[in-house]
Amino acid sequence: MSPNDRALDEAPGAPQDHAAAAGAVFDRHAERYRDKFMDVAIYDRFYRELCARLPVDRPPRVLDAPCGPGNVARFVLNERPDADLLGIDLAPRMVEIARAEVPAARFEVGDCRAIGALPGTFDAIVNAFGLPYLTPDEADAFLATAAGRLAPDGLLLVSTMTALPARAGWETTANGEARLFMTYHAADELLARIAGHGFEVLTQALLDSPPGAAAPTRDLIVLARRA
Q1: Is the pLDDT of residue 178 over 80?
Q2: What is the pTM of this model?
Q3: Which residues pair with 218 in a beta bridge?
Q4: What three-state secondary structure class fits 199?
Q5: Is the residue at 2 inside a domain?
Q6: Disulfide-capable partner of 51 in 36, 79, 115, 199 (CB 3.0 to 4.6 Å)?
Q7: What is the tens place of the pLDDT at every residue in 3-37?
Q8: Is residue 8 situated within a structural domain?
Q9: How far apart are CA 183 and CA 193, in angstroms?
Q10: pLDDT at position 21, please?
Q11: Is there a contact between 202 and 223 (Cβ–Cβ < 8 Å)?
């Protein structure tokens, strides 16, 4: 589950659990998503800063949730081959692709809303474009849980598409083949929520969406540290 690929479909009578429905959609279109976004580099400088801030006296534990096809995990392990990296995603096919693309990491089918059940703590948690498929309450709960699962001075990297929250709703691709329920976050409100859960924002930026996006958006990238 990740940015801007609206060229995905919704099964008739989809459940109100929009994240689970999105996971099923991405499962059916995982290869298409990988081909469009696996090598997008516009966010790399933020991933590089994350890696530079990881502990150097031991292998850092990193959670990538949702992991998509493994693009973030691949970058992190290229920078920090010693990292103990776990990626989870609701789409089983995404997990299969990530395992093939990044064999040095561990990938499992899992829900980013349930990271509180994972054992141990992490030095960094990444949620790259998973928030658009969570309700506002679910996104807030994710931030709260992430704060509790991070080690002292642990890092959080979050990216999402921004717009007025009132824009949330079902969106159809230009070719009419696909629908997903999209949730939007206002940048200032999301930053306030991150700070409200005990994080110190280290880096923030608004970027134009990558060339492969089905519709142009402004993407918010935030790197924060557990205070």
Answers
A1: no
A2: 0.88
A3: 162, 208
A4: strand
A5: no
A6: 79
A7: 444 334 444 444 478 888 888 888 988 998 899 88
A8: no
A9: 16
A10: 84
A11: yes
What is the amino acid identity at position 84? Answer: D
Give the pair of three-digit tokens for residue 81.
């081959």
Q: What is the DSSP track for 128-194? A: ES-GGGS-HHHHHHHHHHHHHHEEEEEEEEEEEEES-GGG-EEEE-TTS--EEEE--B-HHHHHHHH
Share of the chain above pLDDT 70, in %: 85
Cα-Cα-Cα-Cα torsion 207, 208, 209, 214, nearest 10 degrees, comes to: 160
Residue 193 is encoded by which pair of tokens?
A: 């929520």
| 61-64 and 84-89 strand pairing | parallel
Query: Phi and psi of 55, rounded to 5°?
Result: -55, 145
Say how many residues make up the chain: 227
Task: Establish if 7 belongs to a structural domain.
Answer: no
Please report where in the chains the tokens 């990988």 appear, as a residue: 34
Read off the CATH number of the domain in which 112 is found.
Answer: 3.40.50.150
CA 18 to chain centre: 15
Answer yes or no: is 179 within a domain: yes
CA distance 223 to 208: 18
Tokens (6 digits) for 13: 């009578």
